[in-house]
Design a protein that fits this description.
This protein is mainly alpha-helical. The protein has a domain at 108-261. The protein has helices at 2-9, 37-60, 73-83, 101-105, 115-124, 127-135, 147-152, 154-161, 194-211, 238-241, 245-261, 294-297, 310-316, 318-335, and strands at 68-71, 91-94, 229-230, 233-234, 276-280, 302-306. Strand 1, helix 3 and strand 2 (91-94) form a beta-alpha-beta unit. It is globular. 41% of the residues are buried. InterPro entries: AB_hydrolase_fold, ABHD18. Pfam families: ABHD18. This is Abhydrolase domain containing 18.
């Protein structure tokens, strides 16, 4: 997309490579399959910090106007970065939405999550349901409070995940270990506003509560293995005496994801009229049902819908993305000619 933009609008691009991708990928990570749930939170925190540094560097160098855009997860990361920028700035997130929770619990990518391992960890580490749940604060309808709604629709969700009955085995590596060390997600929210500080404190408190009892998010307590006993029964029989374990694990994942990735937990960008969101109508990767819309979180932003799904939009609608970028930059130049 960068080359056509130079030809069409004389617009240059600076591309930031995500942590855990390309040359920044850990040696033991398979392609883009993150090993830990917490890696996603670390990625977000790093992208906020690095984007802020790059924007300040460009600003001091006299480059103008500046804007942020990205596709899919890149669009979400661009949104995170703009929530931490103290000036008006064009933002064009493409094929992303308001939270990552639905992506990994009901969207297509939920099939790449190793739910069997996450269920096991949730069952044998009491800190999850006894302490961490109490630290979570929720954002509107797409929160952990939707547990009754999730239970009501669990048959359809399990069908989507392919995890019901005999099919409930490991289905991939993404988020397969429930998170890195407790400190891994610290500093995720670095916004300077009071709202950002409170959100950051909650995340830090959530993660430190796990660390304080000597437990980390990607392994069971020391000495407790897959065939160790749990309350007099082996952990292999967890599903026998915890029939709701799968539902609880999905709900817990949704709550943690909303806590750490929901845009409502971050500062509102300085000027939401400079935001143009491009979304595919049939996007199965980014479910929007039961999720707060970006228009609710960022009043004044514009949402543009295009026909097609996540992949077809990425492959064949790049011209729509570029048009939205040009429009957002034109708005900025008209509104802030002297900034």
């Amino acid at each position: 997309m960068a080359r056509p933009m130079i030809k069409e609008a004389g617009m240059a691009s600076l591309l930031l490579e995500n942590p855990y991708y390309g040359y920044r990928k850990p040696k033991d990570q398979l392609r883009s399959s993150l090993k830990n749930v917490s890696d996603l939170f670390v990625m977000g925190g790093a992208l906020i910090l690095e984007s802020t540094v790059l924007l300040r560097w460009l600003d001091r160098g006299g480059y103008w106007p500046l804007g942020m855009t990205g596709i899919s997860m890149g669009g979400y990361m661009a949104s995170l970065a703009v929530t931490n920028w103290p000036k008006p700035i064009p933002l064009i997130p493409c094929l992303s939405w308001s939270t990552a929770s639905s992506v990994f619990t009901t969207g297509v990518l939920s099939k790449a999550v190793n739910w069997t391992e996450l269920e096991r960890q949730y069952a044998i580490n009491s800190v999850y349901e006894e302490e961490i749940i109490n630290l979570l604060e929720y954002c509107g309808a797409d929160s952990f409070k939707m547990a009754p709604h999730l239970e009501k629709n669990m048959d359809s969700i399990e069908h989507l995940l392919g995890l019901s009955g005999a099919n409930r085995g490991p289905v991939g590596q993404y988020s397969s270990k429930g998170g890195g060390k407790a400190e891994a997600g610290r500093g995720l929210l670095i916004g300077g506003s009071p709202e950002g500080a409170r959100a950051g404190d909650r995340v830090d408190h959530l993660l430190s509560s796990v660390n304080s009892i000597g437990t980390n998010l990607n392994s069971p307590p020391r000495g407790l293995h897959a065939n160790s006993t749990l309350h007099g029964k082996t952990s292999d029989s967890v599903k026998c005496f915890r029939p709701s374990l799968h539902r609880e694990s999905i709900s817990f994942m949704k709550g943690v994801m909303d806590e750490c990735t929901h845009m409502a937990n971050f500062s509102v960008p300085v000027d939401t009229s400079l935001i143009i969101v491009v979304q595919a109508k049939e996007d199965a990767y980014i479910p929007r049902t039961g999720v707060l819309s970006l228009q609710e979180i960022w009043p004044g932003c514009e949402i543009r819908y295009l026909n097609g799904g996540h992949i077809s939009a990425y492959l064949f609608k790049q011209n729509v993305f570029r048009r939205a970028i040009y429009d957002a930059f034109n708005r900025f130049c008209l509104k802030y000619p002297n900034v």
